[in-house]
Records
---
Amino acid sequence: MTAVLLARVQFALAVGFHFLFPPLTFGLSLVIFLLETVRIRSGNEVARRAVDFLVRILGLIFVVGTATGITLEFSFGTNWSQYARFVGDIFGAPLAAEGVFAFFLESVFLGVLVFGRARVAPRVYWLSSFLVFFGAHLSGLWIIIANSWMQTPAGFAVEGGRAVLTDFWAAALNHSTVVRFVHTVAAGWITGLLFVAGVAGFYLLKGRHSEEAGIMLRVALPVFVVVSFAQALLGHQHSVQVARTQPEKLAAFEALWQGQKHAPLALFGLPMSAKEKTLLYVGIPGLLSWLVHGDAGAYVPGLADFPPEERPPVFLPFISYHIMIALGFVFVALAATALVLLALRRVHQTRWFLWALLVAVPLPHLANQFGWIAAEVGRQPWVVYRVLRTADAASVVVSTGQVLFTVIVFAAVYALIFVVFLRILVALIKKGPAAPEPAPPLA
């Protein structure tokens, strides 16, 4: 294995582990803000207890997410120093903005949520819940801006062997920023909403904390229904954007070896790059052309339309992309079931559905991971699309043995962190929301 490949493995391990936490932050901060809004409008003490419970979990997720995110920024100056030299003038700006404008906003007001319930006015506490929600999403926006620029670079010029910013707004709002941000936020909302719904389902199945579980379900499930249906449309729009700006990536997603009119939409298959064929292929003729261009007879470029040295791998993006889509349909089916049960007012009494919510908690994380793998591996061989190759971005002085050692250390440390995180999370869930305060004795 080469140092470049090991550096890619290390970064994938680090960012994949880190990416367990930001989506949860998106969804949990949304639920906390909605529940706190219910509390301040109605004085509902059940909502207050639910908020306090979820804030403790959000604090845990924020701490671990912050710790695992810091290592990513250091890696740009170690394993990827050539990349940092080439794009530092552009890539560094959104990372700095994320820290200055978003991270500190989110962390300060999360501190108010964790420690300030009895120390600040109710409306200040509600405002803090909104600012945590806003700060989390603002942080995500800056990261998406940085990553989207790598996918569809704009607003720059290469001068003296370095990428120099020429138009901030063109770079920030490049061809993929908006659709990727909205798609990512929706995925995060699904992740957090399903987590809250799963925990609430667990409490109802166990006959514990029924009041808090009930209000968490009443807030989380309707939003989950809306976002799950919306995500199907958002995912389609993102795929259309990929077809227009990164056509070889879409060809890899669909294992489309030869460009063609009436291009089929792949449903299943096992791509074999060496033979440029797909085993056990199942597809719907013309549907890919219609989805991308609104015309079943439109031409869709295939991998053969691009030079061999510019084609991405096929197997991993194809499999990851299709698993992500399959999980998206699982969420739609779950949302449709929830919609029916909500209309019938049978959610709390339908034990199999509560079990389904609990079992489904890890699935959004899998969808997020596979979606990220498809997007990043499908961009290869470029680290900055059609500007800088991944092989040219790695550090030239870091040896294979050094990178291998750090991969092993990272894996061991992250495994330990994950075990500790799960133990604390399970303990928080077992403890549950605080019991309601006893009524004062009658005089």
Note: The mean pLDDT is 92.
---
Amino acid sequence: MKRPSDRNGPLVDMVLRQQTDLAFHRDSNVLVYLIHGITGTPVEMSYLARKLSRKNGWDVYATTLPGHCTRLRDLVQTTEKDWRTHIEKQLLFARDRYEHIYVAGLSAGALLALHVSTVVPVDGVGVMSPTFFYDGWNTPWSHAVLPLAMKVVPLPLQRFLFHIDGPPFGIKDEMLQASVRKSYRLTTILGEWIAEWKALRGGRVTAPRPVTATSKGYPLFPLRTLTEIHRLIGRVRTRLRDVTAPTVILQAREDDMTSPRNASVVYDEIAATSKKVVLLDDCYHVITVDKKRDTVMEELSTFFGVCAAEKHAHHQVRTAT
């Protein structure tokens, strides 16, 4: 099997490519496009991307959503339209270069995957830990007042109000939990802010990207960003009936942020005739890095592989007739 390369293949010229994007090239006619969650990072897709590429010989691309992997001030300046437009442009670029395209996303990234499937023709959708309702067992009490806060706090002021993410950070694996906890310590965050301030004060045009934002994501959810997620939820919910591509939905039974009710909503409301729900044990919300990440990879691999085989068989029948 060919080794992946970052120097060859159409993904090198991907439109709107960022230095934090992940690309695995196998000289394949199949592309799997991965979308991380809001406030997350492509790193949460790195294991899945590498394994999918290695196992199947597929090209895999994990994007960086606008406003991510830099600084919180960049995040609060982006909207759900920015996220949607970014993904649509990249998949339109890929659509002209690959025979088969599969898109998969995590959490709010799953909603973006569902939405883009109604705009750009794709051959399959992977929906991981979809987020329509924050109703998991660890949902903070503050979420109960979010609808009111979104209405009464003016948008320009919403960037100054935050929800702080806390344990277990969507992860059941204790070692990974400890790593995230260390990165999200106040001393760590302040240290990165001070380093950035010193770099700019020392005359550098741009400061280095904060390590935490690049590897672990943002520890804070600005109210402004939660408002944009709320808008995305409303938009996607009304368009679920337009999702016709084969869809596999994966969610943890013990999801700490969004219960399996979310998976049921997707399954019940999309129009796809080929659809499947997989409920996972022994993991929480971020299933791409947690204890069942290999199961997630196998389920996506199998589902997308069947989709590719069926499309190929259908094409042969049409050619023969």
Note: Strands lie at 22-24, 30-35, 59-62, 100-106, 124-128, 162-164, 220-222, 247-252, 275-280.
---
Amino acid sequence: MSNYCKFIDPNLTQGEDNIIFRARIIWRDIATWIRAYLVYVHFESDPKLQEMTINKLMSLPVQFGNMIRLFFGDAVADEYTDILTNYIGLLIHVIHALKIGDVNAVNELTDQLMQNANQRADFLSKINPFWQKNELEGLINTFTNMTIHEAETFFSGDYENNLRIFDRLLAHTSIMGDYAAQGVMNYLKYSA
């Protein structure tokens, strides 16, 4: 995969620069907070800590929605926020299903996650011509599969492999973030 965000346009305003930066790190935030939640569930930490982590996770789609609201309007931002919030909720349910060993629930939830990923890729590619549906599907599906595999190895006690997966997941979030940021940059540059 190529390095998407190869340049920063010197003509961008500070606000546009901030939006591009946010686009680059949103997926790293999601991966990091999912990881924290996974640890708290695995070690049966204080339920209040788990609840606070869920609240943090659920704030991330709103942040992303607010970012795209600036370019695509309220209706688009609200719809995407709902779809991404559903995705985060499904990931949380997968973690619980894996913890209790409910294979049927894991399979059903994984199918729902893949449907959600395809829905988001389709949605985003329609609002920004610089985001390609097949590219987005690949990026989101890889993120989803790696996150599920991360949780599986964590609950199975395969911590060495788990750390390798998390490291790869973080690297993948940089690719996702660069793709999102490049799409925003191109949209700003060519839509003006």
Note: The chain has a mean pLDDT of 90.
